[in-house]
Amino acid sequence: MKCAYCGKETPDGLPNCVHCGHPFTSAQVQAARQTGAQRAAAVPAKSTKTADAERQKKQKVVVIVIAGVLAAALLIGGIVGITMKARSDRLKKFETQITTQWQAAVTDKQPDFLDALDKQASLICTGAEKQQNGYYTVTVQVTSPDISGDLKKYQAQKTKKSASDSDMDQAICKMIETATPKTTTQTLDVIVDDAGEYHVQFNDAFANAMLGYAYTDAMQALTEALK
Fold first, then answer.
1. Which stretches of the chain are DSSP H helices?
2. Exposure letters 147-157 (e unless 16+ CB within 10 A, then b)
3. Helix, strand, or coil here: 15?
4. How far is CA 29 from the centre of its chain?
5. Tens digit of each residue's pLDDT, the chain (227 residues)
6. Residue 190 in contact with residue 200, Cβ under 8 Å?
7. In whole angstroms, what is the distance from residue 170 CA to residue 175 CA?
8. Angle at Cα 31 formed by Cα 27 and Cα 32, nearest 5°?
9. CB of 199 within 8 A of CB of 191?
10. Distances in Å between the alpha carbon of 164 and those of 51, 132, 161, 172?
11. How many CB atoms neighbour CB 163 within 10 A?
């Protein structure tokens, strides 16, 4: 509405001019309100179909975004899964080769206690780091019955009294039956040649773990006996 007193515009329907405070007549106010209502009615409202179409369009966009996120997650998960499987297969190959080559050293004429240790000792390959030219440093967890303490006690008791090989074999077998399993982490060097053949280089620490954690002490005792 235009104020007749100051000549400035005031929003339709207000009883007084917002600039000078001059009052509008009731007829002016009513006419202005009717005019405003007519203007509002003249503005085309969105049809139900148009609103539904826009809502469906937004829903489709949301669905597409979610589908894209899921597809990316599946792709990443697939790549990670393939990588983990390849690593697992490689470690399993090292584990099989180490076990096979260790067992190849077993003879039919070895003492019973060595057979007992071979049955209870186990290993799990947990890592393989490539060095160079086919050389790998392989990490394994070895679990075997720990007879080191009992064997030392047995040796101390037999220092003054000799024992036959058969008696000693039976005594160690009993130690193995009652011994507590012990797990340690060991490392081995493995060479994979151009033909894909595996060559495991066993060491004293690994042998000690596989042989009831008594191999080192046994070798030291044997060295002392041969002096």
1. 26-42, 48-103, 112-120, 148-157, 165-178, 204-210, 215-226
2. bbebbeebeee
3. coil
4. 75
5. 577 777 777 666 566 665 666 676 777 757 766 665 555 455 555 556 666 677 777 677 766 767 666 666 555 656 545 556 777 899 999 999 999 999 887 666 778 888 888 889 999 999 999 988 889 999 999 999 999 888 888 877 765 556 677 888 888 899 999 999 999 999 999 999 989 999 999 998 999 999 888 877 766 654 554 44
6. yes
7. 9
8. 120
9. yes
10. 99, 49, 10, 12
11. 14
CA–CA separation, 161 and 77 (whole Å): 66
What type of residue sits at position 97?
A: Q
- Residue 74 tokens read as 């599946």
Q: Among 198, 84, 188, 93, which residue's Cα sits nearest to residue 138?
A: 188
The answer to whether the beta carbons of residues 127 and 91 sit under 8 Å apart is yes
Cα 102 from Cα 80, distance rounded (Å):
33
Say if residue 21 is exposed, middle or buried (CB neighbours under 10 Å; 0-12, 13-18, 19+).
exposed
Q: Residue 214 corresponds to which amino acid?
A: A
**Contact (CB, 8 A) for 211 and 144:** yes
Q: What CA dihedral angle connects 218, 115, 121 and 205, to 10 degrees?
A: 30
Tokens of 16: 């007084």
